[in-house]
């Protein structure tokens, strides 16, 4: 099974930025833990702060992977282009968020992507990614 994790803007700073919201662990450290937990899965990782690069990655893998776990960061709330890219591909996408976006600023309550995703997981910290992977395993 091939699962791609895609992180959007500012998520390269996990473990450094706003630790009270996002925690102390870098994504690279967390990814190592996921790979150890799921040795039978090929977990690929991609992060970009650039909207067009995220769209290009979706196009590149969106017809050959078994699942995509996507935390589009702030693009979740603004990007019709990423929503359209998700709609255009065959690989199912699960939208994830580390924080509970509904307990945060009002603008974070609306996802432009959710309607084109298999589901949304938010508010479980980094464990949101694991929960998405578990869904692909049981689907």
TrEMBL record:
The keyword Amino-acid biosynthesis applies. CDD domains: DHQase_II. Keywords: Amino-acid biosynthesis, Aromatic amino acid biosynthesis, Lyase. It catalyses: 3-dehydroquinate = 3-dehydroshikimate + H2O. Pathway: Metabolic intermediate biosynthesis; chorismate biosynthesis; chorismate from D-erythrose 4-phosphate and phosphoenolpyruvate: step 3/7. Gene3D superfamilies: Dehydroquinase, class II. The active site is at 22 (proton acceptor), 97 (proton donor). InterPro entries: DHquinase_II (IPR001874), DHquinase_II_CS (IPR018509), DHquinase_II_sf (IPR036441). It is an enzyme of class 4 (lyase). Catalyzes a trans-dehydration via an enolate intermediate. Homododecamer. This is 3-dehydroquinate dehydratase.
